[in-house]
Write a structure and sequence with these properties.
CATH superfamily: Bira Bifunctional Protein, Domain 2
Number of domains: 1
Strand content: 15-25%
Order of helices and strands: HEEHHEEEHEEEEHHHH
CATH architecture: 2-Layer Sandwich
Number of helices: 8
């Protein structure tokens, strides 16, 4: 569960955000995904690609140096309402990107947790809930990385209705096809402005940490200190 542990260890903070650009190519399974179904394991083994898992659900993704990952831990009033939290957090991402680049005007939300651009997936997100604690992660495709996705992932065993059986190449898009942005520029934009947009959409739902639950979350943080992103 390497990809989540550092965020869980910060659960004593009411709101903790990290945005980062992967250093290496890696495959990350959703909590209920089976590697044998979702991943081209022979290709990963041949290239020395790690296959990891996250606490949150959703589909399997390829992280690579051309994408930007958002990892967020926060405390919410309700342990429920995941759909509204998904929509609020994804809308905060959209608003943040549009604020920095107003010409980007074709974002929408589709499926359970996807952000699309002109009808194609450009960002996937996942949630992990533990009582009132919420862990949100999103991977935004900035620079072209279709070759990695096609090389290391099978067609998913489960797909949102809007995918309609499309291949990876017909389903995803990348931000640099629509705007002259680099991962570093997107990362900076999110670091500076995303907290404000999250507060705008979900501020009334935020609460302080449940001190009695923090030790449990930290016990799940088995790999604290691993910075090899």
């Amino acid at each position: 569960m390497w990809i989540d542990d550092g965020i869980l260890f910060q659960a004593d903070q009411p709101f903790y955000l990290e945005t980062w650009i992967p250093t290496f190519v890696k495959v990350v399974l959703g909590n209920s995904n089976q590697a044998s179904q979702e991943v081209r394991l022979d290709a990963c083994a041949q290239d020395g690609i790690e296959v990891l898992k996250r606490y949150g659900g959703g589909g399997t993704v390829v992280l690579y140096p051309g994408c930007v990952v958002v990892s967020l831990g926060m405390w919410m009033k309700s342990p429920y309402h995941n759909d509204s939290y998904f929509r609020g957090l994804n809308q905060a991402l959209i608003d943040c990107l549009q604020e920095g680049t107003p010409a980007l005007s074709a974002f929408s939300q589709d499926g359970i947790s996807d952000v699309t651009y002109a009808g194609r997936k450009i960002c996937g997100s996942s949630l992990f809930r533990s009582k009132q604690y919420l862990l949100f992660q999103a991977s935004l495709l900035v620079e072209e990385g279709l070759h990695w996705i096609e090389k290391y992932l099978h067609h998913p065993s489960k797909e949102p209705a809007y995918r309609q059986g499309k291949s990876h190449g017909d389903f995803v898009t990348f931000l640099d096809r629509h705007a002259a942005l680099t991962p570093e520029q997107v990362k900076t934009q999110l670091e500076i402005h995303l907290p404000r947009w999250i507060t705008h959409h979900l501020g009334e739902a935020l609460v302080g940490p449940d001190l009695t639950h923090i030790p449990y979350l930290r016990r799940r943080s088995l790999n604290v200190g691993d910075t090899s992103k």
